[in-house]
């Protein structure tokens, strides 16, 4: 197999000096020349808004795009818990190295050392920047910044704004972005969906997008393209992601030559409100922090029909405390999720569907009082009650795992540049920092690190270091690419079959959940691939999209996204199939210990799998070996 | 505490409008077997599936996160912005609030600065332009000092966050008889006016933001406080009072003069 | 744009002027009502007060000019802002319902929704009132003491309706107006908001009851308003 060499371009030298050294060596664009360069930023979440604002401040001409009606609505807004930084304000022994180590261990040793170290290094500046923007982080009574603890760490390093940290961070980035819009350095294009990447001479030079309001196709040219379009959790249909989250932008880049790394690395969050009925359109996260005081259990007798509050202690199985006495209810997300699934698969699940477990606050309420619990989790309890109509102060919550975050994404090197020169990928859309499992409060950190403190340097390096010939949208490649995108849309509209987009999306989601979810095996994955192909075929024959392409047409938007999910899902399953080990969120049933714990295979799989698109053929798997010079690969144990 | 799942049969009187220039009309639809556990938007999903199956165009409505934080969703439900529940977005509203046999009137946000795009979806970019006119702190990336250099009293930070919690949904405008955007604008002014970071630009900010708000064509505030009752984020009208104070102070005691951009 | 034009053009600036003039007019109502209440003390007290008031021509001129200016500004701004506010929503709703759970009245009757109507009724009343007391139009009140004049006017049957309607309208108007003006000038804080609301409502009731009491009492106890003339006008 002819494998392409993947150059991660990690600079040499000791880990702690790499970024400094690289910054000193990167090429710079002189201040007067910056205005000669156009940069496209697709996505205005934490990563995109931060990048667009920072590049605008530097003097580049930026065009920013998002599919929502306003950049302020990107899905980063939904993050609840907090953002990590190695500030060591609580004086509890935190350091850049510790944050680095926790993140790399949390990722089950499947992330690139140098990237993760850099992330930990810039984490402090992120907090400073956000504070300066006016982000109202929680404070102590003395007026200084407060911290909370989060899963997977023994120090308090999480900064937060009540249960709405993502919202406040995004609004901070958004305000900086709008400041650049008013300064004329950023032009904002809301309600635009990127449908393709335009490459000229192998370099990313622009995009094709559809104006979702008018249906018009537009082309935009630039000297660099930054894709910051978030994660692809919606391949599962039901997830904690916003309805519009999609893989389209990343997938289209992939089809133009960008490699897709570790697509099967998906995080399934253990505490979400369970599925109620088949009409359900999304799942709601209940913050991880609840496990600080809540105890997870199922009845010992699967046929116990008593109300949960009537089941006495001796008839309850606190299975996390039983299996993992050391960490108990605070085991990492992947472990907690799998344990819940195991109980439910064994028939101990509760409720009408049998796909839920209890999260009980009885003891915490007895010990600390209802008021103390209310002050810690009041808003979450309120949200739970609003959705389920049950009072969690009286009856235990019902929870079940749900798809939440995707660690995989477009492959990028140390500069966050994909395999297509000039195409940079930031935030959840890239694969870089979380390995096979992400620790809580680290996605916000990564998005902002990429946007504020990494891309502004590395993009400049690309602009200054390469010969980029002048190209406008008049270049034939733009027309060509636009026509291809248009044809796809027209084709969708012409089918005029009998089934709705949503029905296909649901069907795909069910397959992904059943075969590519919390536990995977070769047989199931092979079946999944067959089934995905079949649905894809049916999709292109049976879909029905009323209305036209020349107007606001939400069914058409969804159809385009589902069409891409249907292609992407196959690579996802392939990746899961070829990674013959269990690590982080990826659990292969064939690779487990006799006690049912994940079994990593460091000898054969200490690498990134990066998939190359082969037109009319099967995607090709490349690897980037991961070298660990500074940490020792250990088996994660929480017993 | 009811856990029982009931099914509702409903008549939906929905505003249909093909595009910005269409005059629009109400159309009645019947939906049956709606579970009381569904969210309001899931109920609209059911309607849309039904319409697509019948070969009709589905009802357009904006939504994204479906958990009450992005501010994308929002319709008038029986004359109330985001429906009958307080501090609840349309996507968080559940069908258990309705009764079988009921007729539900569903209309878009209505205000001149929020033109209808299609059916229930409106254009709220006016809000972005208000923020653009001054809803920020002028600090470039990299210029920040250590986050703990500026102690901020906890009460100020909490009160500032109360204002910053605005999700930009537009319900305040929709619910106001004057289609005023004062609650939205004041939320940002008040968020930044209560923090030391916002202090250097506080006069220019409020003057610009008010000028832009007016330029967009929103009505004035006549203190009916319907905005506060409709606001899903619980933003209080106290922030409007703070905006008023800030504005009067800025107008009479500072050199700030408004600079607006036209639409 | 100069700062002042900018201020006066803005919705917030104009509301500020509305609020200041409104507060000034509220103050005037207090003074006016206190003076009128002297009628219950007796004709002499009232006459004394009237004389004192009229003895200082310059002060009276100034006060009347100010009052007139305040009224004029308040009314002109009311019309323009209402018009603008109305036109900020070209297409109306099929249905509207309040989400405030502290509303005592349906929107059609709520003080804050009926400011224009109560204001207009108040204004009509004012015209009649000025014509009655200031211009003394159509009454033939020569050689009467102020108290006698007042007694005569408020005892008139047609005035019962007009004055009562005016007083109630004004009462409703200020019950929202006073609190609203405080909010508009930025006087709102968790500590006093509830107090302001309460004072505003009480003020509304006092204005409505206080001013309408005269024609009502005049009907119920006509003898109270038969003042014996002792003093002649002027010095
Ligand atoms: C419910 C929830 C809670 C979370 N809580 C936490 C937490 O507490 N701490 C933490 O660290 N992380 C948390 N996360 C994860 C974190 O929020 C996300 O990973 C992160 O915000 C992603 O940021 P982003 O900028 O990469 O992408 P996003 O914020 O998803 O932004 C994507 C942007 O791309 C645009 N876009 C997408 N596709 C297209 C297209 N085709 N064309 C044009 N534009 C497009 C969108 O409009 C949007 O602007 C949470 C996630 C969820 C779902
Ligand atoms: S103030 Fe409240 S109602 Fe108005 S936009 Fe913000 S969240 Fe929505
Ligand atoms: S869809 Fe995000 S707030 Fe309702």
**What name is given to the CATH topology of the largest domain in chain B?**
Fumarate Reductase Iron-sulfur Protein, Chain B, domain 2
**CATH homology superfamily of chain C:** Fumarate reductase/succinate dehydrogenase, transmembrane subunit
* Class computed from helices, strands and strand pairing of chain C: mainly alpha
Shape of chain B: elongated
What is the correct CATH architecture of chain C?
Answer: Up-down Bundle
The overall pLDDT of chain B, averaged over residues, is 95
Please provide a written account of the structure.
The complex is a heterotrimer of chains A (639), B (263) and C (235). Chain A contains 17 helices and 19 strands. Chain A is α+β, with helices and mostly antiparallel strands and 639 residues long. Among the domains of chain A are: 269-403, Flavocytochrome C3, Chain A, domain 1 (Alpha-Beta Complex), CATH 3.90.700.10; 477-621, Fumarate reductase/succinate dehydrogenase flavoprotein-like, C-terminal domain (Methane Monooxygenase Hydroxylase, Chain G, domain 1), CATH 1.20.58. In chain A, the strands form five sheets. Chain A has a five-stranded parallel β-sheet. A five-stranded antiparallel β-sheet of chain A has the order 11-15-14-12-13. In chain A, helix 14 (501-516) runs parallel beside helix 16 and helix 15 (522-542) packs antiparallel against helix 16 (554-578). The radius of gyration of chain A is 24 Å and the shape is globular. Chain B is an alpha+beta fold and 263 residues long. The mean pLDDT of chain B is 95. Chain B has two domains: 3-118, Beta-grasp domain (Ubiquitin-like (UB roll)), CATH 3.10.20; 125-253, Orthogonal Bundle (Fumarate Reductase Iron-sulfur Protein, Chain B, domain 2), CATH 1.10.1060. Chain C is 71% helix and 0% strand. The longest helix of chain C has 31 residues, at 11-41. Chain C starts with a helix and ends in a 15-residue tail after the last helix. Chains A and B meet through helix 3, helix 5, helix 6, helix 11 and helix 12 of A and helix 1, helix 2 and helix 3 of B. Bound molecules: flavin-adenine dinucleotide, iron/sulfur cluster and FE2/S2 (inorganic) cluster. Iron/sulfur cluster binds at residues 166-172, 183-184, 187, 230-233, 235 of chain B.
